[in-house]
Amino acid sequence: MPVAVIALGGNSLIRDARVRQRLADQSQIIAEFSSQVVELLAEGWSVALVHGNGPQLGQALQRSELSRELVEDLPLDLALADTQASLGYQFQQSLGNAMRQRQLSGQAVTLVTQVEVDAEDPAFANPIKAVGYFMDESTATYHREEDGWQVTEDAGRGWRRLVPFPKPKAVVEMAVIRQLLAPGSCVICAGGGGIPVIAGESGYLSTTAVVDKDLTAILLAEQLKAELLLFCAAGEQLSLYPNTEKAQPLSRLSVRQAREYLAEGHFRSGSLRPKVESGLQFIEATGGRVVITNPANLLRGARSQAGTEIVAVESA
Prior knowledge:
Structural class: alpha/beta
Strand content: 15-25%
Number of domains: 1
Shape: globular
CATH architecture: 3-Layer(aba) Sandwich
CATH topology: Carbamate kinase
Helix content: 25-40%
């Protein structure tokens, strides 16, 4: 039973960042994405799907802000849980419907997932991750003075909250995920990178932080011994010198080639460099392969027909 771990960014669920997102648009995007995942399931794969939730988390926190005169503020960990469950439900329903239409016997299931982080992680002393909605200065000042938030002005677009961004140590529900990954099934898990928790004497304790979904996807892929780790990014494939006359699209790279390009300073756009670096970590730990492509080419990327594929050796 080959296992694929797919990491999908929360921004991929936004039709147009310049206009207010409608839930109907999000549902349609999820349906389009799910149709490709179901084809993977039909080919015999089992899939662990890790989705981002940045924009959706911002919306949940803004709803809480707008209603704070009436109800208690929503803590960050509960907002993470809410978006894991709501997005997971949409994926679960969409995937399930598509699987029934294809007369597949597997199932899709959502698991609200905790991720253990280290209480001594230096990230807790240096909050750098902007979360939530854009605030005006007076609202930001209120939260800084009344709630102890760290806030920052964001390139003229408004003020945002900063929280720690620790590295994930372990997926708390890993054993359950393994059990749920039956042949031809999809487990939607670790949404938003998982809900960060700290191990204490009496169990796990909540903490105010967020975790990178790609790093959590790697943990999953390594521990599940996945054959494929697929990152959904903005572009169809990696390129050297993008957006220039010297642009060189890259279809296939060995680990050695990828390391050489990283050393030369390539792949610095957005989150591409971390995806390549973490993908190399996965390959060296498991011997699997990594594909980086956009959501529209997910299926073709898994089939080595699109995107950029990174493999252990050049002759593979």
